[in-house]
Every structure is written in C-alpha cells, then in structure tokens.
Fold this protein.
Amino acid sequence: MVFQKTTFSRLFTVALSGQGLTTSTSFGFESDGKRFFDVTIHGRPRIEQGMTVIALLDKPGGWEGRGLLGWVDCSDGSIACDSVSRFFGIFFVCVFFSIMFPIRAYDVIGTPENANLVALFVSATFGGFALRFLYLYVKALLVKNALLDVRSIQPKGSDSSY
C-alpha cells in the first residue's frame, strides 16, 4: 500500500451506487495530465474539482477498480474509507448463525440423520463468511489507522507537500 497526494484538476461523472451497508461512489478525474476512470471509493464522500487528497492505494498509480482504499481530504482533514464497524457487525452475525444453527437444526429440519448433515453444511458456510468478514474488518481497521496517522501529520487546511 502506498500514499499518493493528488489534486483533482478535472472531474468526470460522479455516480453513487448501492444502498444501506454497501454504498460506494464511482468517478473519474484528471491530475497532472493523467486521466483515471472507474475510480471507486466506499461511502459517499465529498468530491469536488480542485480538491487535494492524500490517497491510500493498493499499488502505485492503482486508482482504477478497487485500488483506492481511502483518502484524507487536505482542506478539512475528513477521511473517506470503508466502514470498520460494518465489517465487524457482519462478522458477528455470521459467527452467531454459525453457532446457533446447529443448536436449532433439529427443530427446523426434523429428522436427526438429515439434521446433522445440513447443520454441518450451514455452520461451515457461515463460518467461511465469518472468516472472510474478519479479514475485511482487519484490513479496514489497518486502512483507517493509516489514514488517521497521515491526518495527524498533515495539518488541516494545508496543501503543503509532506
């Protein structure tokens, strides 16, 4: 992961997508003569022409697709990144169902020979989802902490280089 300071000298179409827990914003921009399309950021942050951000990218120059992990707005210090609490909440729900379904399987399914197999399958499925969302929670937590560290270094309202 790398940090890159960028000014959006020209913005292209900004499109909001998703509702509830899965909101994201897709846009395109031009900076230093280079154009980037299909840039996606989680949530619905403020995006304006001329704004300067310190972006956290998966790889150098990797703006397109899901390469943008988050940013710090240099003008007001606001942070745009994925929600840590959302991933932890989904992880918790998956763990809950992974544990509770085998307990309630006999009431739901009825016959004991089928109940064990179905309970094992459902529990393993929710366990797999829980591991995936635990990974996403840890990644989102690391991204947010990195952005908070950069914000503490970069003073509010400052467009100076770091």
About this structure: Residues 84 and 140 are 5 Å apart (CA to CA). The beta strands are 2-7, 10-11, 15-17, 24-31, 34-42, 52-57, 68-73, 79-81. The first strand starts at residue 2 and ends at 7.
